[in-house]
Design brief:
The structure is a homodimer. By secondary structure, chain A is mostly helical. Chain A has a domain of 103 residues. The first copy, chain A, is 74% helix and 1% strand. Chain A has a two-stranded antiparallel sheet.
């Protein structure tokens, strides 16, 4: 079995070697740009880690499908940036800002199609199962994005609705990634299913920690401005909980903060951070992350994983859940 | 073998029975709307016709992949309408006009993914070949759309560039449709390849006749306003040829017509129609359609097709090329 560091290096190298650009360059250049501006490559790394639980024989049969997950993820980001009217991503201009919306729509489309191209490099006998898994996930990610957009104008979002949304938008892809690696490595069915559920719970923990870091992260480590979600009134785990808990004075205060304009950014962010602390939302977010992390580990128990396999999965999930960036 | 009329009825029934809508309805309703507003269903009919050359056993194994082609086609139309800022399609509001751009982007995305879902209902042993064919086509359609957009601001487009563009944008999908039916029916490889080339040439003829009808069609039969391409200065077969042929006086006249504004629509359309006639472009468009039609038929010869098979293919291609709507 390779160490997580070694697996990360394998994926980083494979992404460096990805070549998309051909004619017309106006269509394909944005793909290479999008793939090159970074990210943690969590999805292909999860896929490779799951595969490597069963097989050390790492070739195109697993690298290509793993890259398909990253290509698909970047396709969704590319289109999300149009819908969110985002100007920057990871400190760089978004594709829609750099080349315009039409190029971003079309480059995203071809990226989705190319994800399938990379996917089909998996072993032929696994193709039907892998395709079904991937296509189900693809639809779920779109459903999650739709709910996320609808939440923007929906006055009340329940905790259950929020968890359902991030399940579809974020956890489905992580779950698919980890199961896909197992399926391609010919893992026992029960273990592949356990890994899917593990990935789903880790995905929920991962998204809540993303929400947490956007408000309480260390800006030097997090790599982007703190408070972006607060400024655009995004229905994060924190805000959904605060809306549920606030009443009387705190409810009044919450409404005041939500009504503050962009000209009072610093004040708005500081006030919301304080309110999250006062309402106990900050500390409960940390608890929720831990709870989903524990649920993830429970998904693995009783399925005959070896201690060595469990160690790698624990190490990976801890790095996703206890990250600071 | 079923008649083309019977095949058409089979496809129409299958499309009527398509169900997309589930939660969130905001994502899936536009799909059902888009599929319901009509169209000639040429791609699934071509796929079924090719399959039926070899097999009368028509079940989900061929109907589902045939529908995947129509779903994919409608996904591209849905996104094209955003890029073209189109308000209506087939006399109905476009999805982007009715629900907004964000919904149109996301509904299109899920439609592309669902096309793959329907596709994977093909026999498992054919899946790798069918997926490769489909995915190659998908990228080509995006490439064609990119060229089409780039042509809008490109002063000179050569005839060769134009044919390359419509090959990618239109012919690739028709070629894929007809080959896919043959592959799923287990046709001899040489015949499947011949059918692909046949479909490509028919696709070129089909697109040029589309350009022709937009300018010289009978508005009562064509079903939409005549002169739309002229009004938006689209680089059609007619305009590309006219730009090549016009010189001196006729060049001056062409530039004058191109410069006419929307307030002189009737005059602009009539003047361009007349210029196309004067330059011989109108009659040569009809010739070009016939030439590609003949090339299509030549692709079939010497590949051992039976007279019965050839008859059906001739009947189908004639209906596509000699259509009036």
């Amino acid at each position: 079995m390779y160490s997580l560091k070694e697996q990360e290096a394998i994926i980083a190298r494979a992404i460096c070697n990805l070549k998309f650009v051909k004619e017309p360059a106006g269509l394909y250049e944005p793909l290479e740009y999008m793939m090159s501006i970074g990210g943690k490559r969590i999805r292909p790394r999860l896929c490779l880690a799951a595969y490597n639980l069963y097989s050390d024989d790492i070739g195109d049969n697993i690298i290509s499908p793993a890259l398909a997950l990253e290509i698909f993820h970047n396709f969704t980001l590319l289109h999300d940036d149009i819908m969110d009217r985002a100007d920057t991503r990871r400190g760089q201009l978004t594709v829609c800002k750099k080349w315009g919306d039409n190029v971003a729509i079309l480059s995203g489309d071809v990226m989705c199609i190319l994800a399938y191209k990379w996917l089909t490099a998996c072993p032929a006998d696994k193709q039907p199962q892998v395709l079904e898994l991937f296509t189900k996930m693809g639809a779920e990610v779109c459903e999650g994005q739709q709910y996320d957009m609808e939440f923007e104008t929906q006055p009340v979002v329940t905790g259950e609705e929020y968890i359902n949304m991030i399940g579809l938008k974020t956890a489905a892809l992580l779950a698919c990634s980890v199961k896909m690696g197992a399926v391609i490595a010919n893992a026992p069915e029960a273990q592949a299913e356990a890994l899917y559920n593990f990935g789903w719970q880790i995905g929920l923990a991962f998204q809540i920690s993303d929400d947490y870091l956007d408000t309480f992260g260390d800006p030097h480590v997090f790599g982007k401005k703190i408070g972006g979600d607060i400024m655009c009134g995004k229905k994060t785990w924190l805000l959904v909980e605060a809306l549920k808990r606030a009443s009387g004075e705190s409810r009044k205060r919450l409404n005041e903060i939500l009504a503050m304009g962009d000209d009072r950014a610093e004040e708005k962010i500081a006030a919301m951070q304080q309110l999250y602390i006062d309402l106990g939302v900050k500390q409960d977010a940390v608890k929720a992350i831990e709870e989903y992390h524990e649920k993830a580990m429970e998904c693995l128990s009783g399925n005959g994983f070896t201690p060595e396999q469990l160690d790698i999965l624990k190490e990976f999930s801890a790095s996703l859940v206890h990250r600071e960036d």
